[in-house]
């Protein structure tokens, strides 16, 4: 049998490319040796046969350089006995992860993968097999190999840092190859070379090269290591105080006095009455040590509070300040931002001047006419009322029988048209205000020549239809879902409707002059809440529950997405200049966005403890307001500067109260007067209030 060399084992390990671990304890090795005499003989013979096969396959030679044995050649000649060798080379094995084979043999045939056992079967086999620890898995050949006793001995010796063969003597005696006894001449009688007596020019060139590199900064010499500046924190006071300006001496323990003496004077020893009185005192006022008289030093007992006193002393040292810090005397008022006085920011609404009563249910929405003379309101009692602002007189009432969710006046004074959303219908009502010419123009605009759904609306006849409404004297737009809000364009010809349950067709834009409707050509990516037109440009704001998307209607592209970070958006309003937006949420937070600055909120105001129902900007005054279910309305001052380097000035001004809650709802809507610094609020208590300066 050929002798197994350590190099053979290492080559075998490299060719198998396997990761395995051995038990390094001698107990496992002894258990393996004592597993059975008969089995051990078979294992040894089979292991040597495997080694001989491996050596013959890899082309290894014996120690003396002779060819492998005939038995190995005979075993190699039979292709049935020897498994096919995988000849994939350096290709990673994970290339064949999804294939049914693991590579190719020397003849180019595929080597199929073996069926893998389940984890349960593999675990049971490992439990039953006492020699499982001596097995390893060859990923390249997809087979399991069991090491022989001789190979395990070699591996154990390699792990211990020894030579693989036991018969190798690392401390063999030194063999001197030369005989020094009676030697008359040295080994070499050559003369000393000249290079040993003259400086080396190559070393001089290297020195010059190092000097140039150091001057150019490419090579930096090692700086001397600085010794750590350690010092004893509670060391000698004189030395520490000289080196450190902020040195603080350690707290000194109280020195013992006459009371701590083992034989104090009689006047220091308390009587029994005094000791009893100590028990009635507070623990802080009670003396911590009671003197006692002891006859001799040998009779002194152990101090019972020794551990406690040592612990308290350690706490004194541990909790003592190490550095002296200067206390800064700062007035808290100076840390507040400097805001202008509220007197300088007048006028703004302060007190309730007028109440509009007449509704029997919660007022859901209000809208002020462009001239500021009239105000319209819609309620859950199914009615719409038009009020005169200055007197509070109710001019007209329309009954719809269902909840009115939104009302909105046309922004043009010459078109007194009111848009009303009632469930799935949007009514365009002629309010009857204005002279005869205005009424004639309004009637022509609200007349429909084809009172059917066959309008030029693209693919929208199934979801919307324009109808003539003779009952209220106007038009009716029948939608396929409930309409939550209606908003007009600044020119008064376009208006948008929002259906929160409409999915991809939730926001529609209508043109009154041509009686046309088109769907918003963008994907909202969320449930819509409300929408609003830009006051000066062809930009459209669509609000979902999480963010506000800004679209350019002419170019039909998305300009920006405003990330609010709020739980759910309830309303939005655009500044009259168009560069700033306020967003109200159902968690009581109000976000101010500067479109030129960032897509993140410039300022987040946590003002209301409950849901914010609506927010609004004033058209001409630097005011904005928010209303909430907490039955209050907050009025803020918001000045936007033309200088882009100056941030907007936001100052809270007033909290308007007066409404009462009903069914958990408070103030449902708020609107500013178009010309005066007045604020209208609509509450769940069926009242509308006017707050003036």
UniProtKB/TrEMBL annotation:
This is Ribosome biogenesis protein BOP1 homolog. Gene3D superfamilies: YVTN repeat-like/Quinoprotein amine dehydrogenase. GO terms for molecular function: ribonucleoprotein complex binding. Residues 1-86 are annotated as: Disordered. Keywords: Nucleus, Repeat, Ribosome biogenesis, rRNA processing, WD repeat. The keyword Repeat applies. Residues 96-349 form the BOP1 N-terminal domain. WD repeats lie at residues 356-397. Required for maturation of ribosomal RNAs and formation of the large ribosomal subunit. Transmembrane segments: none annotated. The keyword Cytoplasm does not apply. It comes from Rhizophora mucronata. It is found in: Nucleus, Nucleolus; Nucleus, Nucleoplasm. SMART domains: BOP1NT, WD40. Residues 1-15 have a biased composition (Basic and acidic residues). PROSITE patterns: WD_REPEATS_1, WD_REPEATS_2, WD_REPEATS_REGION. One of its GO terms (biological process) is maturation of 5.8S rRNA from tricistronic rRNA transcript (SSU-rRNA, 5.8S rRNA, LSU-rRNA). It holds the Pfam family WD40. GO terms for cellular component: nucleoplasm; PeBoW complex; preribosome, large subunit precursor. InterPro entries: BOP1/Erb1, BOP1_N_dom, WD40/YVTN_repeat-like_dom_sf, WD40_repeat_CS, WD40_repeat_dom_sf, WD40_rpt. Residues 25-42, 55-81 have a biased composition (Acidic residues). PANTHER family: RIBOSOME BIOGENESIS PROTEIN BOP1, RIBOSOME BIOGENESIS PROTEIN BOP1 BLOCK OF PROLIFERATION 1 PROTEIN. Belongs to the WD repeat BOP1/ERB1 family.
């Amino acid at each position: 049998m050929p002798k197994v060399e350590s190099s053979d084992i290492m080559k075998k390990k490299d060719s198998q490319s396997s990761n395995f671990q051995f038990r390094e304890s001698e107990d496992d090795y002894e258990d393996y040796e004592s597993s059975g005499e008969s089995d051990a003989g078979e294992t040894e013979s089979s292991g040597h046969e495997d080694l001989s096969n491996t050596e013959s396959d890899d082309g290894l030679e014996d120690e003396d350089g002779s060819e492998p044995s005939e038995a190995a050649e005979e075993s190699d000649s039979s292709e049935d006995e020897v498994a096919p060798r995988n000849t994939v080379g350096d290709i990673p094995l994970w290339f064949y992860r999804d294939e049914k084979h693991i590579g190719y043999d020397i003849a180019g045939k595929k080597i199929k993968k073996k069926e893998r056992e389940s984890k349960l079967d593999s675990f049971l086999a490992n439990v039953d097999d006492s020699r499982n620890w001596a097995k390893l898995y060859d990923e390249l050949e997809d087979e399991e190999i069991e090491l022989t006793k001789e190979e395990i001995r070699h591996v154990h010796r390699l792990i211990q840092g020894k030579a693989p063969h036991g018969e190798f003597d690392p401390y063999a005696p030194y063999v001197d190859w030369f005989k020094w006894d009676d030697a008359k001449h040295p080994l070499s009688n050559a003369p000393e070379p000249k290079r040993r007596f003259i400086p080396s020019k190559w070393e001089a060139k290297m020195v010059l090269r190092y000097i140039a590199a150091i001057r150019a900064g490419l090579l930096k010499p090692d700086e001397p290591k600085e010794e750590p500046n350690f010092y004893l924190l509670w060391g000698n006071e004189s030395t520490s105080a000289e080196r450190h300006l902020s040195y603080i001496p350690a707290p000194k323990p109280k020195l013992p006095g006459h009371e701590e003496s083992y034989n104090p004077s009689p006047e220091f020893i308390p009587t029994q009455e005094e000791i009893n009185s100590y028990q009635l005192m507070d623990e802080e006022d009670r003396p911590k040590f009671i003197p006692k008289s002891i006859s001799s030093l040998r009779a002194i007992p152990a101090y019972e509070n020794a551990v406690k006193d040592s612990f308290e002393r350690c706490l004194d040292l541990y909790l003592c300040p190490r550095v002296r810090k200067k206390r800064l005397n700062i007035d808290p008022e100076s840390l507040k931002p400097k805001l202008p006085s509220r007197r300088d920011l007048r006028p703004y609404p302060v007190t309730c001047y007028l109440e509009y009563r007449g509704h029997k249910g919660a007022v859901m929405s209000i809208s002020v006419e462009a001239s500021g003379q009239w105000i319209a309101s819609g309620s859950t009692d199914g009615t719409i009322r038009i009020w005169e602002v200055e007197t509070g007189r109710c001019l007209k009432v329309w009954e719809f029988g269902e909840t009115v969710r939104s009302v909105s006046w046309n922004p043009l004074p010459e078109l007194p048209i009111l848009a009303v959303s009632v469930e799935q219908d949007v009514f365009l009502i002629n309010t009857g205000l204005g002279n005869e010419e205005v009424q004639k123009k309004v009637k022509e605009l609200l007349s429909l020549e084809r009172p059917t759904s066959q309008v030029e609306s693209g693919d929208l006849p199934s979801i919307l239809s324009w109808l003539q409404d003779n009952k209220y004297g106007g038009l009716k737009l029948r939608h396929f879902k409930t309409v939550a809000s209606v908003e007009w364009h600044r020119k008064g010809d376009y208006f948008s409707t929002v259906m929160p349950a409409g999915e991809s067709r939730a926001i529609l834009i209508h043109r009154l002059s041509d009686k046309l409707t088109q769907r918003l050509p963008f994907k909202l990516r969320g449930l819509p809440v409300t929408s609003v037109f830009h006051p000066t440009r062809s930009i459209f704001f669509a609000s979902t529950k999480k963010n506000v998307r800004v679209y350019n209607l002419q170019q039909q592209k998305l300009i920006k997405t405003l990330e609010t970070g709020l739980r759910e958006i309830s309303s939005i309003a655009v500044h009259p200049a168009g560069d700033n937006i306020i967003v109200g949420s159902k968690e009581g937070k109000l976000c101010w966005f500067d479109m030129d600055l960032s897509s993140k909120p410039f300022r987040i105001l946590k003002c209301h403890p409950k849901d914010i129902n609506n927010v609004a900007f004033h058209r001409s005054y630097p005011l904005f307001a928010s209303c909430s279910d907490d039955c209050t309305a907050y009025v803020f001052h918001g000045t936007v500067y033309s200088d882009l380097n100056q941030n907007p000035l936001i100052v809270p001004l007033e909290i308007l109260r007066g409404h009462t809650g009903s069914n958990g709802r408070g103030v449902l809507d708020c609107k500013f007067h178009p010309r005066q610094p007045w604020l209208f609020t609509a509450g769940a208590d069926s009242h509308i209030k006017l707050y003036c300066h």
